[in-house]
Amino acid sequence: MRKASVILPAVVVAIVIFLSSVFIVDEREKVLVLQFGRIVDAKEEPGLAFKIPLIQEVVRYDDRILSRDIDPLEVTPLNDRRLVVDAFARYRIVDLYQFRQAVGTGGIPAAESRLDSILRAQTREVLGSVTSNEILSLNRDELMGRVRQGALAEARELGIEIVDVRLKRTDLPRENLDATFARMRAEREREAADLVARGNEAAQRIRAQADRTQVEIVSDANRQAEIVRGQADGERNRIYAEAYGADPEFFQFYRSMSAYRASLKGENSTMVLSPDSEFFTYFKDDGAANAPVPMAAPAEDATAGETPADAAPAIEGGAPVAPDAPPAAPEAETGAEPEAEPEAPVTAAPEAPADAAPAEAETQPAGQ
């Protein structure tokens, strides 16, 4: 029993010592073996490793690519347009001995703090040597490459390799945003006003062209209407001349009736004539209605259309004459000269209005 009681504690102590001397290196880590704070060994390959228990200790570092966001910093490009730049970097630990000597017991937080200082200085230097347009253009990859190359040498002194540097965001300072937005708004409003002015100019030009086209179309239509109306009047006068030329005596009688109708209107007018005037030839009872009487043409403004349609002048024998019959055309237009007796030349009758329709039937006076 005494032997078993001695062997069992010894075995337990041996197992504890063995377990404390064995450690595992993960594939995502790098390990430093320290003895009283001094580097004894570095383990970078994954697997089992040994150390002296109670004397040596193990310090583990991440072997993966790490990311570090750089605090926003303000840079001033060549054109004095200040920008606020927000960037980040990716790095990894490549030299454990150098890294331990540089940061000591601070580890990765101390290394990242020193890395921030390096990257901020390089970013200001590189972005301050170009204009803001180049920073905001698609050539930022080249600028970030220059930042990485500038910070690479200083980062190696820390045992760190900078894999990449990128800009996340580039903004104007807060105090400059309002002024910039106001300038952009004014520029857009100026462009809008220019477009509106051009549109109004084009509208005025189109409207003027349309008005001109309208005037030309209306003028051409009026010209064609006048031509057609003149041709129709000429044809009408020719037909009237032929009709009245067939009976000159009736034509003289009709002219006298038209003169009576135009002169003896029921308005407040005064006529001073001799009782023996030939104007009233057809009102006499001596049977001289058949004698031709030279009659003066009525005034230009007195037309047959102003007398009511049912007012037909009376002649000897009581036979009415159609008042709506149009007058004869002038001799110069028709070319047909009506026959007249030598002692009673016939004067031209006034033209009827264009809208006055000729009488459909004319009645011969009694005794013709």
Describe the structure.
The chain is α+β, with helices and mostly antiparallel strands and 368 residues long. It has 3 domains: 2-62, no CATH class; 66-171, Tetrahydropterin Synthase, Chain A (2-Layer Sandwich); 175-261 and 277-368, no CATH class. Helices cover 44% and strands 16% of the residues. Strands 6, 7, 8 and 9 form a 4-stranded antiparallel β-sheet that branches. It has a 3-stranded antiparallel β-sheet with strand order 3-2-5, with no helix packed on it. The protein has a two-stranded antiparallel ribbon with strand order 1-4. Helix 2 (96-103) crosses helix 3 (107-127). The termini are far apart. Residues 287-368 have low confidence and may be disordered.
Q: What layout of secondary structure does this protein have?
A:
Elements: H1 2-21, E1 22-25, E2 29-35, E3 38-43, E4 47-50, E5 56-62, E6 66-69, E7 73-75, E8 83-93, H2 96-103, H3 107-127, H4 132-136, H5 140-156, E9 160-171, H6 174-245, H7 248-263, H8 331-334
Antiparallel strand pairs: 1-4, 2-3, 2-5, 6-8, 7-8, 8-9
